[in-house]
Amino acid sequence: MDWIRGPTLGRGSTATVSLGNSISGDVFAVKSAELDQFQFLQREQKILSSLSSPYVVGYKGCDITRENNKVMYNLFLEYIPGGTLADKVKAHGGRLEESVIGYYTGQIVQGLDYLHSNGWVHCDIKGRNVLIGETGAKLADFGCAKRVDAVEAATPIGGTPMFMAPEVARGEEQGCSSDIWALGCTIIEMANGGVVWPDVNDPVSVMYRIGFSDQLPEFPCCLSEQARDFLDKCLRRDPKQRWTANQLLKHPFLVKSNSNSHSHAKQIQESNSSSNSPTSILDQGFWSSLDESESENVDNLVHPSEESSAKERIRRLSLLSEGPSWDWDENWIPVRGNCSEDGDTMMDSVDAAGDVIRYGSVYLESHGGEQLLDDLLDTNIRSRISGDFLGVCKYGKDSSLIRSNVEFNKHKDTLLIPYIPRLILQA
Ligand SMILES: Nc1ncnc2c1ncn2[C@@H]1O[C@H](COP(=O)(O)OP(=O)(O)OP(=O)(O)O)[C@@H](O)[C@H]1O
To answer: What is the pLDDT of residues 26-65, one digit of tens each?
Structure first.
């Protein structure tokens, strides 16, 4: 297909999404990554090409192009003009009306029911990964998705800390019921603008709180009893106690919202038609109104391959004199699970400023074990080490270390740290 790349619509940790149009005048979204970074996109292509549901973003093909001396992998998607659910919440002052929450929740649950019954777990349900089209909500961003049958195996675990279910935060498993927990968090996001764990101010503490306390996120007091009962069916610490998507579809909260769906659909259409989103390539006003500098900024993102070596990062970390200092950054975008060649796990997240936050687990022996810890930590902390450790480092666009946090937990015989909540530096 011959097509032209238009303005940037959005960007995430792995890809940039632009508007595209074909010679025949079709408008679509193009999700692109450079060829050496394209594994997530290729994976997403495989998944999306096997799915077809009104509640899942539509797949339209893929290709490879050469642009500005870069080879790009492009995934063509149905263009969804209304932005993300998170954008919608923001545009409504950080809170949606309960009837609207019910309407979008119903569509997300339909999407999850479709995915789960087809053997997929999304693994990163949140407002930023739900797109709002003319017919309402559609699930998007399948970069973390997994087959249900592979979930039990030792596959890397992914997701966004604030939306992680307890069993995910502990690194145990990530199944359909983990998506249902994230759905509960997304409802809270719709009701109060995204603050699921308001009193925790860094992702590692969030994961500890979720994984190892007996707490639940606070249910927004603005919600009705019925909506709170629905939340209660999603946010149960024991994954076996959570309702399935199919059961949730029959919950009175969704049944009631469904009966109002016609008027909501009309409202969405009206708000989308008054937005400046193009429906065809002839809508030149939109094209010229978009800030082209957006797409230039993409080049400022730090990709893992561009970052300096682990040793260098460790050296920088060891130079830190201050203790951990974190501000919760609500704009952190996503986290990705990935396995490096030596079996370590890493997760990258990119915040709104384009800085990379890197979580990971590392097999210490493969990096010199004890020596690494000595390099990494000051003596005071070193004396407390008995095994696993936990931390997060954040790198700026220039790869300089911005913030770090390292903690330790109980003794293990080996220094193998199999999963995220435990560490952080990555070779
Ligand atoms: N089909 C689409 N139609 C319109 N806009 C889209 C579409 N897909 C994505 N976008 C926009 O691009 C942004 C980034 O897309 P997406 O989340 O799929 O990328 P990503 O790199 O996988 O992100 P993440 O880092 O969250 O995993 C979205 O937040 C949204 O604003």
So the answer is: 899 999 998 777 777 888 999 999 999 999 999 999 998 8
What contacts 24+ positions apart, CB below 8 Å, involve 271-276? 271/82, 272/81, 272/82, 272/132, 272/133, 272/134, 275/81, 275/82
Superfamily name with CATH number, domain 3-78: Phosphorylase Kinase; domain 1 (3.30.200.20)
Is 13 near ligand 1, meaning CB less than 6 Å away? yes
C-beta 12 within 6 A of ligand 1? yes
Tell how far the Cα of 85 is from the centroid of ligand 1, in angstroms: 11
Say which CATH architecture domain 83-266 belongs to: Orthogonal Bundle (1.10)
Parallel/antiparallel/unpaired status of strands 345-350 and 356-361: antiparallel
Cβ atoms of residues 394 and 327 within 8 Å: no
Q: What values do phi and psi take at 109, rounded to 5?
A: -65, -40
Q: What ipTM, to 2 d.p.?
A: 0.95
Residue range(s) of every CATH 3.30.200.20 domain in the chain = 3-78
Is 124 assigned a catalytic role? yes
Q: Does residue 131's CB lie within 6 angstroms of at least one atom of ligand 1?
A: yes
